[in-house]
Amino acid sequence: MKKPDLSVEIAGLRLRSPVMPASGCFGFGREYANHYPLRLLGAVVTKAVTLKPRLGNPTPRVTETSAGMLNAIGLANPGVEHVVAHELPWLAKQDVPVIVNVAGETKDEYVEVVRIISQSGLAAAVELNVSCPNVKAGGITFGTDARILQDLVQTVRKVCTIPLFVKLSPNVTDIRQLALAAQAGGASGLTLINTMIGMQIDIQRRRPVLANKTGGLSGPAVKPVAVRMVYEVAKVVDIPVIGMGGICSGADAVEFIMAGASAVMVGTANFTNPRACPEITAEIEQFMIEQGINSIAEIRGCIA
Amino acid sequence: MKVTVMNTAQIARKTWQLTFTGSFPYGEVQPGQFVMIRIGSGTEHVLRRPISIAAVKEDRLTIVFRVVGKGTQWLSERKPGDGLDVLGPLGKGYPLPHTGAGVLIVGGGIGVPPLYLLAERVRPLVQQLDLALGFQTAADSFWIDQFASLGNLVPAADDGSFGKKGTVIDAIKLLSEGRSPKSRPWDYVYACGPLPMLKAVKQHFAGHKVQGYVSLEERMACGVGACCGCVCQTADRTAAKRICADGPVFDWNEVAL
After folding, report:
1. CB proximity list for A302: less than 8 A, separation 6 or greater
2. Are B26 and B61 in contact (CB under 8 A)?
3. Worst-scoring range by mean pLDDT, A143-147, A244-248, B11-15, B102-106?
4. Which helix (H) or strand (E) holds B178?
5. Listed residue (B224, B248, B237, B252) closest to B88, CA to CA
6. Taking Cα atoms as reference points, which of B254, B255, B210 lies closest to residue B104?
7. Listed residue (A175, A229, A167, A209) closest to A70, CA to CA
8. pLDDT tens sequence across B3-52
9. Does the first or last residue of chain B, that is N or C, have fewer Cβ atoms within 10 Å of its Cβ?
């Protein structure tokens, strides 16, 4: 039989593969380009970018948990000016669409950063980070109140001339309300889930392991929750959904696609195996060959 | 890289050495670099463990590590012939001294292992190599004979159970006092150990004309510079350095200790 078609089209973006790294787990791509050509990815999704450089939280800010990890990096990044001058021009030469994750403490900051990224001509899309659990101001507060989220997306939409994805937090009562609010605000697509707030205690020292006390839980431990949320959201929105949460294998990725995701993001697995993304892509292809599936669309959302 | 365990041995309290062979760029290893080792093969452990390189020969590499949790426990239970998934060598190591320089190497506890490879590489370049190595007790010490064969070693134990009673600073003072007036003053100080020790060593040499290098450690996720999990701050505290990629070895004037 002929080779299955792994390409997907999401919000007008044509991606060669449905697999891309999750924001924050891939830097700006340089480190992983030593392991494989980045054009093997559907897209590169950058670390969160803010208006000014941020040092992030005190260390320790990562720790392993059972089948997962907690992080409290705190949006450390060199600031949008540096990113546009030094990171995006390099990424633009890698023959792969670039999705820039944008975070802010205020609505004005989001608008300003999105405007700069959009006007740079170096990004294929923006991913609005309204779900970082590790910063004191902004971040998650925009992602947990439907009215505030819709207003933010609406305002940002006006300065964003490229596709605008909104990354949703799982730390809410009903994620569908936030998904619908983002859609109403004009989002081109949704990405979910960000990390779940967790905590780990060092019982010998009687203190939290993370200096920030709490952090975002990611990895295989969160996968069933993530699959459920993608399933719920995909059922109620008309815009594409990109699924993530603990994907470590092609089989994991197929679960998300069957739950309704048009594409997937891989986060923590990059740390376990730097070649995780291309290996997962190959496993999806293998599954499609075995099952006689010709395209991703054929199985997307096949779970009733 | 998939490598094969040759042997493991417990060499001190909670402390093990493991030697592996197989496909690995042994020739590229610089002293102070580390490897990231995958724990298990399923999804229980998602983060590799960063472990410094203690010794390297043509086709084999030795690490020394302390068992502190489930990951290092698993590593200590490896048997000859077992496979290991290893990334490396990673990070930036210690710059070597100029020929004929005076060198002091200072290590504390589980910070001592990478200094062995460093001492081996430094030895042929210098006339005399001084070493101050501190451990909590004699039961925590290891490779004392190997280090002693490379230079003038003063070990120290906090409880006085062997060597000089006290810290590495006491050992450094003893080395200073014992130096012949004709010997070359220390041009380089290389240190690895707990942060309070690194601070104390830097403090001890404040005002001295020495080039100091320290190796830092922190919990890591990616180990290659992408996640920004393991960072320290520059000396002026205005920017971050990634310990895994920009370090783990830094000029001690470059970073905030």
Report:
1. A258
2. yes
3. A143-147
4. helix B168-178
5. B224
6. B210
7. A209
8. 999 999 999 999 999 999 999 999 999 999 999 999 999 999 999 999 99
9. N
Closest CA to A170 of A198, A206, A203, A204: A198
Query: How many Å apart are CA A234 and CA A262, to the nearest integer?
Result: 9
Would you identify the CATH topology of the domain B2-90? Elongation Factor Tu (Ef-tu); domain 3 (2.40.30)
Residue whose C-alpha is closest to residue A256's, from A246, A268, A271: A246
Q: Note every long-range contact of A83-89, with CB atoms under 8 Å and residues 24 or more positions apart, other chains counting.
A: A83/A28, A83/A46, A83/A49, A84/A116, A84/A117, A84/A120, A84/A122, A87/A28, A87/A46, A88/A28, A88/A120, A88/A122, A88/A123, A89/A122
A window 6-45, beta carbon within 8 A of B: 24-27, 30-32, 34
- Class for the domain spanning B103-215: alpha beta
Nearest to B93 by CA among B256, B199, B245, B242: B245
B223 Cβ under 8 Å from any chain A Cβ: yes
The backbone torsions φ and ψ at residue B187, rounded to the nearest 5 degrees and listed phi first, read -90, -30
What angle is formed at CA A284 by the lines to CA A283 and CA A288, rounded to 5 degrees? 115
- What are A169's two structure tokens? 């937090």
Confirm whether A132 is a catalytic residue: yes
* Alpha carbon B4 to chain centroid, angstroms: 23
DSSP strand pairing (B211-215 vs B249-251)? antiparallel
Closest by CA to A134, choosing from A206, A51, A218, is A218
Other CB atoms within 10 A of residue A196 CB: 20
Q: How far is B40 from chain A (nearest CA, A)?
A: 11
- A214-218 and A196-199 beta bridge pairing: antiparallel
CA angle B231, A75, A63 (to 5 degrees): 55
Chain B residues with CB under 8 Å of A59 CB are 218-219, 229-232
- pLDDT < 50 positions in chain B: none
Helix-helix angle A146-157:A175-185, to 10 degrees:
30
The whole-chain average pLDDT of chain A stands at 96
Instruction: Give the integer Cα–Cα distance in Å for A254 and A252.
Output: 5
Q: Return d(Cα B84, Cα B37) in angstroms, integer.
A: 7
Domains parsed from chain A with CATH numbers:
8-299 (3.20.20.70)
- Tens-place pLDDT, residues A183-200: 999 999 999 999 999 999
Residues 177-216, chain A, touching B (beta carbon < 8 A)? none
How far is it, in rounded angstroms, from Cα A245 to Cα A175? 15
